[in-house]
Fold Cell division suppressor protein YneA.
Amino acid sequence: MHQFLHSMKHYAIFFAVIAALTYVLTLVLGADKVDLDKYSTVTITKGDTLWELSNKYHNHHHLTTNEFVKWVEDVNDLNSDTAQSLSPGDKLYIPVLKKELHNQVAIEQ
């Protein structure tokens, strides 16, 4: 009986560790996902840069220019080379909530 309880204790510890690791991995992997439906998109025009977009929308986000650029690169799967060569017509998500832009348009009208 003693050996049975001892092995059950090991199984319980093993499954507790597996459950804890699964929980932590779920939190870590799920934390990087952004709900893009909440964010605005912009259509790139000739000469646009990510830094200019950050400045253009500075009243609608609370990021530094570098944080804005990094967010756009990460969410849109850009690297620094592709971010330098944006083409007119490209559509990018920016870290500006749709409701922020909607509220601004309503105020201006």
